[in-house]
Amino acid sequence: MTPALHTVRTWAAHEQHPRHDELAWKLAGVAFAPQPDDAVADMVINRLIDNAGVAVAALNRTPVAAARAQALAFPRAGGATLFGVSPMVRVDASWAAWANSVAVRELDFHDTYLAADYSHPADNIPTLLAVAQQCGASGRSLLRAIAVAYEVQIALTRGICLHAHKIDHVAHLGASVAVGIGALLGLGREVIYQAVQHAVHVSCSTRQSRKGQISSWKAYAPAHAAKLAVEAVDRAMRGQTSPSPIYEGEDSIIARLLGGAGHEYTVQLPKEGAPARSILESYTKAYSAEYQSQALIDLALRMRARIVDLEEVASIAIHTSHHTHHVIGTGAGDPQKMDPLASRETLDHSIMYIFAVALEDGCWHHERSYLPARAARPETGRLWQKISTVEDAGWTARYHAADPRERAFGGRVEILMKNGSLIEDELAVADAHPAGAAPYGRPEYIGKFRSLTGGILTVGAQDLFLASAARLNDLTAGELDALVPELSSHDLLQITNEAIF
Question: What is the pTM assigned to this prediction?
Answer without folding.
Answer: 0.97
